[in-house]
Amino acid sequence: MTTRQNGIAVIVCAFLISVFFGLYITGNSGTAFSKPPLAMWDVRDGLHNDNESTSWRERFPHLPTCSKTDAPEVKLLIVTYMRSGSTFTGDLFDQHPDVFYVYEPLHAVEKSIVMTRQTARFWDKPSVKVDTANKTAIEKLEDGIVGGYLNCNFQNIDITTLEDPFMKFGQKTEQFGRCRGQNKGVIGTFRCLPGLQRSCCRAKVVASKTIRYTMTRALTLMANDAKVKVIHLVRDPRATMLSREKYGKVDRRSVEKHCVQFCQAVRTDLQIGREAMTRFPDRILRVRYEDFASHPTRFAEMLLRFAGLEMTAKQREHLRQITSGPNHQCATCIRLLNTNSSYNAFSWRRGINLDDVKMIDKQCEGVYPLAGYLPLPLASSVRNLSLPSLMEPAQVPGFLS
Ligand SMILES: *[C@@H]1O[C@H](CO)[C@@H](O)[C@H](O)[C@H]1NC(C)=O
Ligand SMILES: *[C@@H]1O[C@H](CO)[C@@H](O)[C@H](O)[C@H]1NC(C)=O
Ligand SMILES: *[C@@H]1O[C@H](CO)[C@@H](O)[C@H](O)[C@H]1NC(C)=O
Ligand SMILES: *[C@@H]1O[C@H](CO)[C@@H](O)[C@H](O)[C@H]1NC(C)=O
Q1: Which of 29, 205, 239, 253 could lock onto 74 through a cystine, CB 3.0 to 4.6 A?
Q2: Domain with 109 in it: what CATH number?
Q3: Which regions span the lipid bilayer (predicted)?
Q4: Is position 287 within any domain?
Q5: Which DSSP letter does residue 206 get?
Q6: Confidence of residue 11 (pLDDT cuts 50, 70, 90)
Q7: Burial class for 397, CB neighbours closer than 10 Å (0-12, 13-18, 19+)
Q8: Helical packing angle, 255-279 and 354-363, nearest 10°
Q9: Which ligand gives the minimal distance to the CA of 386?
């Protein structure tokens, strides 16, 4: 090729790239790139350091934080574990009109950023290439996200997290997803952010449930911000383990190892939580899923009151529907129990393998006295539901009753 041909080729290439990328970032291509190729992310990274980004930032100026008069009064974090009734408990808050609810804010960090070693990218601060072997670095990113949500400060939240499909599991975050559906690309995401921020600032309570946080870390949030309140939700480890197996979350061969780690984590959280209750009176609430499921309305009222909220009539009806089922007409019951919840809370006793009960009773013996669960040493006692598998809530210190 001659020099002239080379020159033309370069110009044509540059033109095609700029047209393609230009369409992507302005969101006019009509194609949703949920996972753009790596090269595009790299170009996208230029958003905050080249000259063009200056003009983009002028078009989408820095989001102001909530005003003093228009900011949530309570920042509620529900700390819990996989298959422990957390969707049900979180839904209680999501259904309240005064709540801005975020479902699993750290899902994208675990599933996208850490697992596939992506770089965390932000609108107006430098990207972070997280060293996935460095726990401190991951926790720093996570704390930024949790804090970003609780404070309605979305510029602190990385783009992958903002674009996480789990956003559809909250009524107000789902509206953001809808807006993004009409405003494609990363610019679309930022075009939709002010709306998300307004809806967060206007809420009386920001609430979020997470299975990816510890009580120790939640206490740090509480120490730094008097508006932060924490609900620690626990469930009978035997029910949780059976459910995890049933949903393929744990391999049959590694059940015992999994159980040891799980119960160690719950025990630490329970100990930390109990000590912290004197340090932060009225800001920590501990509840067992079984108690909530057995007395849905009474516990729902107490949980809401903890966050400064009253149950609405609509919520009362929704709660009745999802806990007294099965109800096939109930459109809002998707992902929720839609069953007789007091029956459902103990149905594990009918299906669980008796050797598993023995193993869990042994490996979780440190958890039981702290949360009022009772070992079931005999096969006949596991299946006989007249024999209690847990103490009455009023007899368990520090638990909601
Ligand atoms: C960026 O803008 C500044 C000021 O407008 C200018 O001096 C500089 O040459 C520009 N840089 C590039 C790479 O275009
Ligand atoms: C881990 O990350 C933290 C926070 O980003 C950093 O301060 C620290 O130096 C890192 N440690 C190592 C061993 O890279
Ligand atoms: C739900 O189950 C409980 C416990 O098995 C039972 O006492 C109750 O009558 C059931 N409620 C309904 C509405 O079926
Ligand atoms: C279940 O336990 C109750 C209370 O101890 C007992 O009266 C009853 O006979 C037991 N039922 C069976 C089937 O063993």
Answers
A1: 205
A2: 3.40.50.300
A3: 7-27
A4: yes
A5: E
A6: low
A7: exposed
A8: 40
A9: 4
Q: What confidence tier does 100 reach under pLDDT thresholds 50, 70, 90?
A: very high
Cis peptide before 194 (omega within 30 of 0): no
82 lines ligand 2 (CB under 6 A): no
Q: What are phi and psi of 103, to 5 degrees?
A: -90, 120
Global pTM?
A: 0.83
Task: State the distance between the two ends of the chain, measured CA to CA, in whole angstroms.
Answer: 82
135 in contact with ligand 2, CB cutoff 6 A: no
With a 6 Å cutoff on the Cβ, whether 136 touches ligand 2 is yes
Q: What is the pLDDT of residue 273?
A: 97
Domain count, the chain: 1
Contact 360, 259 (CB under 8 A): yes
Mean pLDDT of 181-188: 84
- Cβ proximity of 62 and 190 under 8 Å: no
Residue nearest to atom 2 of ligand 3 (CA): 343
Which of 343, 346, 348 to mutate to test ligand 3, by most ligand atoms within 8 A of the CB atom?
343
Measured in Å, residue 375 CA sits from the centre of ligand 2 at: 43
Domain membership of residue 109 as a residue range = 74-395
d(CA 395, CA 401): 9
* 78 bridge partner residues: 209, 231
Mean pLDDT in residue range 367-381 = 95
The answer to whether residue 202 scores a pLDDT higher than 50 is: yes
**How far is residue 291's CA from residue 342's CA, in Å, rounded to a whole number?**
9
Q: What Rg value do the Cα atoms of the chain yield, rounded? A: 24
Is there a domain that residue 2 lies in?
Answer: no
31 or 207, greater pLDDT: 207
For 222-238, b/e burial (b = at least 16 CB within 10 A) is beeeebbbbbbbbbbbb
For residue 235, being part of any structural domain is answered with: yes
Q: Check pocket membership of 346 for ligand 3, CB cut-off 6 A.
A: no
Q: Rounded to whole angstroms, how far apart are CA atoms 281 and 307?
A: 14
Residue having the nearest C-alpha atom to atom 6 of ligand 3: 343
152 sits in the region (left: phi over 0; alpha: psi -120 to 50; else beta) called left
The rounded Cα 398 to chain-centroid distance in angstroms is 25
Is residue 318 assigned to a domain?
A: yes
Does ligand 2 lie within 6 Å of residue 137's CB atom? yes
